[in-house]
Design a protein that fits this description.
single chain; alpha/beta; UDP-galactose 4-epimerase, domain 1; 2 domains; seven-stranded parallel beta sheet; 10 helices; globular; binds NADP nicotinamide-adenine-dinucleotide phosphate
């Protein structure tokens, strides 16, 4: 039985990856920081099939201890401070988690389990204001916010440990990916959840920033399938993980409100407070390499993603309005 260690287990991707690995017969360990004791909603349904180990990316000793206990064949580092606005208000903490945390983890692997295969969650935010679109694995990094800077550091440290110490270490440069388990501060979930709330009479308007902003969105379940595939190859390598197409916030709003039978123009208010000063320019992934080498491509279309999230939001909100104590049951989608 293969063993895998996931950091960021309690997050969106960690919970889907844990499900995937359990289904593939892995013994799954999750590194969970002490402060997240009350934040296990996304993995509650897996609690009897995962071994949770206490550790923190801020603490070198805890990382070494966790790896020594788990002795994993594969390590997926999904933990980070992942919200860009917070990276502006807490830049040093973002660097501690998202940049230096990866140095600590790589050192722990090198010292305690050098044969483990390592996946680092890199991000399209490393490209920031790219010279060209679509971006591929050779596009220059020009991050434009502290989160992107921290991810760029982590990316290059991973690549350097691969060459310097011969670790099997890979970076997946993921573009935005969504699911019913996404936090509601991210725009995709904010739109589907608020459209569902308006449909159910629980809200009256949706405030958004730039409706012309475009993103390359895919489904988190598709993204974690790519992460796993990357660690099954003969040689470690870095890959873009994306849908390869962009859609505007306006298209997303139209699609979501159409699905619930409402005219979006009656409910959506543009508010400049929600504009991003560091709006990325033409972030779209070129997925030729991962399609050709790993035969991966997203299974869910943009429209299917909007619909499955709306179905989930409608179901959740319906349950919550009957009994507010019911927690996000349909997050199990
Ligand atoms: P998420 O939902 O924000 O989850 C982040 C996870 O990191 C949580 O489990 C959190 O634990 C954990 N964490 C934060 N600080 C930690 C620390 N000091 N020690 C240990 N754990 C810590 O993120 P996600 O959406 O699943 O994304 C997974 C990874 O992909 C992240 O690295 C993110 O930056 C990257 N990424 C995501 C996207 C996307 O669209 N989702 C796109 C590009 C890259 P708590 O429960 O304790 O808070």
């Amino acid at each position: 039985m293969k063993k895998a260690l996931i950091t960021g287990l309690t997050g969106q991707d960690g919970s889907y990856l844990a499900e995937l690995l359990i289904a593939k017969g892995y013994q799954v360990f999750g590194l969970v920081r002490r402060s997240s004791g009350g934040n296990l909603d996304r993995i509650g349904h897996l609690s009897d099939r995962i071994q949770i180990l206490s550790g923190d990316l801020l603490d070198q000793t805890s990382l070494m201890d966790v790896i020594t206990i788990a002795q994993p064949d594969e390590i997926y580092n999904l933990a980070s401070q992942s919200y860009i606005p917070t990276s502006w208000t807490q830049p040093a903490l973002t660097a501690e988690y998202t940049a230096l945390g990866v140095s600590r983890l790589l050192e722990a692997i090198r010292r305690c389990q050098p044969d483990a295969r390592f996946y680092q969650a890199s991000s399209s935010e490393v490209f920031g204001a790219p010279d060209s679109a679509p971006q591929d694995e050779r596009t220059a990094f020009r991050p434009r916010n502290p989160y992107g800077v921290a991810k760029a550091y982590a990316h290059w440290m991973t690549a350097n440990y691969r060459t310097q110490y011969n670790l099997y270490a890979c970076c997946g440069i993921t573009y935005t990916h969504e699911s019913p388990r996404r936090s509601a501060e991210f725009v995709f979930r904010k739109i589907t959840r608020t459209a569902a709330q308006i449909k159910l009479g629980l809200a009256t308007e949706l405030k958004l920033g730039n409706l012309d902003a475009r993103r390359d969105w895919c489904y988190a379940k598709d993204a974690v399938a790519a992460m796993w595939l990357m660690l099954q190859q003969d040689e470690p390598d870095d890959y873009i993980i994306a849908s390869g197409e962009t859609h505007s916030v306006r298209e997303l709003v139209e699609c979501a409100f159409n699905y619930v039978g409402l005219d979006w123009q009656q409910y959506v208010k543009v508010d400049s407070a929600f504009y991003r000063a560091d709006e990325p320019v033409q972030l779209i992934g070129n997925i030729d390499k991962i399609q050709t080498k790993l035969h991966w491509q997203p299974e869910y279309s943009f429209r299917q993603l909007v619909e499955l999230m709306l179905e989930s939001d409608l179901q959740q909100l319906g349950q919550e309005s009957i009994d507010p104590k019911i927690r996000l049951v349909s997050q199990l989608n």
